[in-house]
Amino acid sequence: MMNIGPYVEWSDYLLKGALVTIQIALASIAIGTIAGFLVGLLRFVPSPTVRSIVAWTVEIVRAVPLLLMLFFIFFALPAIGLDIPIGLSATLAMSLWMTVNTAEVVRGGIQSISAGQKEAGMATGLSGVQIMRYVILPQAVLRILPS
Amino acid sequence: MTFDVLAHLLPLLAVGAGLTILVSAAAMILAIVLGMVTAVLSQMPGKWIRRLVRGYVELFRNTPLLIQLFILYFGFPQIGISMSPLACGVLALAIYTGAYNVEIFRAGLEAVPIGQHEAAVATGLSRFQEAFYVIIPQALRISFPSLGNNLVSLVKNSSLVSTIGLADLMFQANEAAYTDFVSFPAYGLAVVLYVVIILLLTRVINRIDRTLTARQ
Is the pLDDT of residue A4 over 80? Predict the structure, then answer.
């Protein structure tokens, strides 16, 4: 017969941990999704400079392991005077990770909408922003949501 | 000052980066074999095999890799199975990535047009020949881009093996940060090295993908 004592004793700690997991996950998902959406849209602004800066930043941030991102924010930034409390560090790292990954999904979704849609928008005299807002995004969002 | 610190750190972290690449390469080879064999198994008749494959995929994709690694390294010795950190690290990464690869290969196998199967039957190939010479090569071609993404994720996930004492890039950065109090340059340099490894890897994968596409 297995002794269940330790399990009862630990369950309290583990449940507290689960609560922190949920808190950080919810905060990061919320922040990361919104920020990721905006960053994804930045890939389609008219300025090529902005587009390539955003593209490179996303590519570089995506290349960093999450664990290293977390350690960098929590252990390395204090050395240059940025002291961020532990909960905020974790949320920040997870949000950043979520942001760049969401941004890539959003980019993929928008690029998957056929060029004819954009051309149709131009032909009916819509502005660039209007095309994005009323033609491309409503279709792209449907493809983005599953990912 | 900064230059001295970097000159001191670079050899340490470079050794770590070597281990990161080694562990990732070993795990990826295992994960590809595991994913492919399991994907082919899942195409076999018999629902028990399919349920087993489903169970493996769901179990390993829906739990954190860190927990899987800890169970393998800290949990298994308690039931009499002890392995070195290197073996545990490679195995945990391989089984985790393998679960993702199964889905990719399965989708690849299912994406090969049915006409290819009919053509193989019509030319009198055995089932084995059909699988090896007709279906699997095409499935691999279809799966390649997604497989590349998995390889990139694997290299990043390999940073977790630092937690069981494998002296990879992440581990060396931690060591340097703790022992020499150079946390900013240590982690900063680690970021740079990971970015270099991943960007090079991405370029190689894209080049192979283009070659494969051009050959068609």
Answer: no
Going by the DSSP 8-state scheme, the letter that residue B135 receives in this structure is I
CA distance A81 to chain B (A): 11
Chain B residues with CB under 8 Å of a chain A CB are 152, 156-160, 162, 170, 173-174, 177, 183-184, 186-188, 190-191, 194-195, 197-199
The values of phi and psi at residue B82, to 5°, are -110, 135
> Amino acid identity, residue B161?
V
In sequence order, which residues have a C-beta less than 8 Å from that of residue B108 and are 6 or more positions away? B39, B138, B139, B140, B141, B142, B143
**8 Å CB contact between B85 and B161:** yes
Residue pair B98/B31 in contact by the 8 Å Cβ criterion: yes
- The separation between the first and the last C-alpha atoms of chain A, rounded to the nearest angstrom, is 45
- Asked if the Cβ–Cβ distance from B184 to A59 is below 8 Å, we say no
CB B30 within 8 A of CB B89: no
Query: Among all chains, which residue has been given the structure tokens 């009919």?
Result: B118
Rounded Cα distance between B29 and B182, Å, is: 35
Q: Is B151 exposed, middle or buried (0-12, 13-18, 19+ CB in 10 A)?
A: buried
Residue type, A136: I
Compute the half-sphere exposure of residue B116: CA atoms within 13 Å on the CB side of its CA: 16
Indicate yes or no: CB of B156 within 8 angstroms of CB of A63. yes
% chain B with pLDDT above 90: 40
Which residues, in sequence order, are CB contacts of B128 under 8 Å at separation 6+?
A: none
Give me the residue label for tokens 């960053």: A39
Q: Are the CB atoms for B106 and B39 separated by under 8 Å? A: yes
Residue B197 banded pLDDT, cuts 50, 70, 90: very high
- ipTM tops the 0.90 cut: no
pLDDT tens digits for range A93-116: 999 999 998 888 888 888 877 777
A61: nearest CA partner in chain B:
B195
Q: Is the pLDDT of residue B1 over 70?
A: no
CB A27 within 8 A of CB A97: no
Q: Does this model's pTM top 0.80?
A: yes
Instruction: Name the 3-class secondary structure at A110.
Output: helix
